[in-house]
UniProtKB/TrEMBL annotation:
In eubacteria ppGpp (guanosine 3'-diphosphate 5'-diphosphate) is a mediator of the stringent response that coordinates a variety of cellular activities in response to changes in nutritional abundance. GO terms for molecular function: hydrolase activity. One of its GO terms (biological process) is guanosine tetraphosphate metabolic process. This is Bifunctional (P)ppGpp synthetase/guanosine-3',5'-bis(Diphosphate) 3'-pyrophosphohydrolase.
Length: 739
């Protein structure tokens, strides 16, 4: 493309026009000071990028202006954000430094530009874990300024809108990245329009045939749909006008991405999707009548069209954590078609479209409070950033899970409302209140009844957590918790507990080796790690601490050591670790080598399914076949959905365990003289032992004679023997025997 003087003059006019448009469409009312800041940022950006052009051939400055327009109009941020958006590529791509920006525009703009530069300079290529690590670093910039991420979303939206000139492989990569993290982030901030556009544009590049097919079908049916919306709206409009309600009705097709999702998830065709569009009734109201009018409109709509009672969504009484408020109803419209109707006031509609900016514009009138309010959402995301130990892929997956999850609303005993992700359990609720309450959870009541910690909560439940200072997290808790916060805290507590046991184990091992005339030194530890086929010294000490490696096994090691030949071969076959094993005090490894089935973790015969070839450590389930006994499938096996839906009664819970850390259940029968408080003494004695869990407990008293039965879970016989000896010493207990 030839760039003539006439072309440059025309381009310059176009740039000025875009700048004026930016000021005109800004959502916030801009003061004279604001306009001066934006003008200065605009002139600096124009000068800095004057020699740069995009792949399409247009002047580069059009990109920062477009990003600033999205920030100003669609997201509705302040002048500081608009200026930062105009300057977002200046430090990375031009001669300007961060110090120049700070000197010219102040600390806030420099901080945001620095955050955006850090994100852009992340390594772009690499496998998924490298990519995940980059996203993790990006999310950590949330600590700097929340506006960094919001402007980055605007930057990504404009890049997605103008990707046509790029190579196809680059298009697919950027689109996949967008679906992976930017769309969930936009969703979480409450930028639903931007989220929808990002998803649709991503689909356009990742699955162009599917995108164009659905787009074509939507265009074909547009005329018919417009007529249907017109007919539906007329009935409602006439009724609302009679009530003197000031409103407008808008018809909106569902996004291409959401239609695609339904086709895949529900395994149906385009024609079978009944709600391809939604109707929005937006009404004018003062704050006092807002709620009343929403329900009035609801009653008018349902006077004419039959509602589906299971599809009522009341986000006016309990707004989403993004600030979203609306009433959603699905009604049976003309010609027997279901139609989704969304009822929103003008204020609610602005919040739905602008997210937090609108929410806090209405809540706080002055700028300082506004920005403080905008930062509140950061606290919700902060929890996912607390845990720096999780590997990058898990971190991003867990983070995404928390971004996209639907919400439920549950009550505390005092009647306070708590928001949790859909699928959250009683244990998640305990950790959501406070970490210490989570750690000390002994039980819970939901709606006044005692329930299991694994109980999945529903909106409207009232939950009371019963705590005890002696309660401690167990490994099973990870099966009961779903939120990132709860899982992170539980893992951290278990790690700490295992560390303490390993420290005790080290001292026990020192004593036991001393009786064999062997010193506990680096060489001994390394030899024992190899002898017991372990990975780290922590593994060794932990297993001694829980009693898995007992006296007999230590004696076996001692006798093998005295045999020089055996020792020679042991050292030959030993793997050469990357670093000195005795120094490796990292995680205690799980050597997954055994499958157990059902809640009571039985060992059963099984075969691994050839369709998905599960390996130890995979998430799996058992399926009882007619001829081949139990077949084990991965949870993400292509056949899993069909098996679990059509033959649910044949599906068995299954999980891999580390047999060297396995616990065994044992029954103990107690007899003695009945005495007040005896049961409490017995349970206290058991709970004092770190390595014992009570599975079942039953006591009875007859004519002054006491009888009890306990089922406990222990690591090995020596722990059980010690427990029985302790119980026998309790005053009033006559006999303790194992069944």
């Amino acid at each position: 493309m030839e760039i003539t003087d006439a072309y440059l003059e025309q381009e310059s006019k176009e740039i000025t026009k875009e700048y004026k448009e930016l000021l005109r469409i800004s959502y916030r009312i801009l003061s004279v000071k604001d306009k001066k800041l934006i003008r200065k940022a605009f002139e600096t950006a124009v000068e800095a990028h004057k020699d740069q052009r995009r792949k399409s051939g247009e002047a580069y400055i059009f990109h920062p202006i477009a990003v600033a327009k999205i920030v100003a109009h669609e997201i509705g941020l302040d002048a500081t954000s608009i200026a930062s958006a105009l300057l977002h590529d200046v430090v990375e791509d031009t001669r300007y430094t961060l110090a120049d920006i700070e000197q010219m525009f102040g600390e806030a703009v420099a901080r945001i530009v620095n955050g955006l530069t850090k994100i852009s300079s992340l390594k772009k290529d690499g496998d998924i874990s490298m990519q995940a690590e980059n996203f993790r670093k990006m999310l950590l910039t949330l600590n700097d300024d929340v506006r960094v991420i919001i402007i980055k979303i605007a930057d990504r939206l404009h890049n997605m809108q103008t990707m046509d000139a790029m190579r196809p492989d680059k298009q697919v990569k950027i689109a996949s990245e967008t679906l992976y993290i930017y769309a969930p982030l936009a969703h979480r901030i409450g930028l639903y329009n931007i989220k929808t556009e990002l998803e649709d544009l991503s689909l356009k590049y990742t699955e162009p045939e599917v995108y164009n097919d659905i787009l074509g079908k939507l265009k074909e049916s547009k005329e018919e749909q417009d007529q249907y919306i017109k007919d539906f709206s007329k009935t409602i409009s006439d009724a609302l006008k009679k009530e003197d309600i000031d409103f407008e009705v808008k018809g909106r097709p569902k996004s291409i991405y959401s239609i695609r999702k339904k086709i895949v998830n529900q395994n149906i065709s385009f024609d079978e999707i009944y709600d391809k569009f939604a109707l929005r009734i937006i009404y004018k109201s003062n704050p006092e009548n807002e709620k009343f009018l929403a329900w009035k409109i609801y009653s008018i709509v349902t006077d004419y069209y039959r509602p589906n009672p299971t599809r009522l969504r009341d986000w006016i009484s309990s707004p989403k954590t993004t600030g979203y408020e609306a009433l959603h109803i699905t009604v049976m419209g003309p010609k027997g078609k279901w139609v989704e109707v969304q009822i929103r006031s003008e204020r609610m509609n602005e919040i739905a479209e602008k997210g937090y900016a609108a929410h806090y514009k209405y809540k706080h009138k002055d700028e300082a409070q506004d920005e403080q309010g905008l930062d509140l959402w950061l606290n919700r995301l902060q929890e996912a950033l607390e845990n720096n130990e999780m590997n990058a892929v898990d971190f991003v997956e867990q983070f995404k899970l928390n971004l996209y999850s639907k919400e439920i609303f549950v009550f505390t005993p005092q009647g306070d409302l708590k928001s949790l992700p859909k699928g959250a359990t009683v244990l998640d609720f305990a950790f959501a209140i406070h970490t210490d309450i989570g750690y000390q959870t002994r039980g819970a009541k939901v709606n006044g009844k005692i329930v299991a910690l694994s109980r999945v909560l529903k909106s409207g439940d009232q939950v009371e957590i019963i705590t005890s200072s002696s309660a401690k997290p167990t490994k099973n808790w990870l099966d009961y918790a779903t939120t990132a916060r709860a899982r992170t805290k539980i893992k951290s507590a278990l790690k700490e507990k295992r560390k303490l046991i390993a420290e005790e184990g080290k001292e026990i091992l020192r004593r036991k080796l001393k009786s064999q005339r062997i010193s506990l030194n680096e060489r001994t530890v390394n030899e024992m790690v190899v002898f017991f086929k372990l990975k780290t010294s922590q593994d060794l000490f932990y297993r001694v601490g829980i009693g898995t490696i007992d006296n007999k096994q230590i004696k076996d090691y001692a006798s093998s050591r005295s045999n020089a030949l055996v020792s020679f071969f042991k050292n030959k076959i030993r793997r050469s670790p990357d670093k000195d094993t005795s120094q490796d005090e990292g995680d205690i490894s799980n050597n997954y080598d055994q499958l157990v089935f059902g809640d009571d973790e039985q060992k059963l015969d099984y075969k691994l399914a050839p369709c998905c070839n599960p390996i130890p450590g995979d998430e799996v389930f058992g399926f009882t076949t007619i001829k081949d006994g139990i077949k084990v499938h991965k949870k993400n096996c292509p056949n899993a959905i069909q098996l679990q839906s059509n033959y649910a009664y044949r599906v068995l819970k299954a999980r891999w365990i580390d047999s060297s850390q396995e616990e065994f259940s044992a029954s103990i029968r107690l007899t003695g003289i009945d005495d007040l408080g005896l049961v409490s003494v017995i349970t206290n004695e058991i709970s004092r032992n770190l390595n014992v869990n009570i599975l079942n407990i039953a006591f009875s008293s007859n004519d002054g004679v006491f009888e009890g039965k306990l089922v406990v879970k222990v690591k090995n016989i020596s722990i059980l023997t010690k427990l029985m000896e302790r119980l026998e010493k309790i005053d009033g207990i006559d006999k303790v025997k194992r069944e």
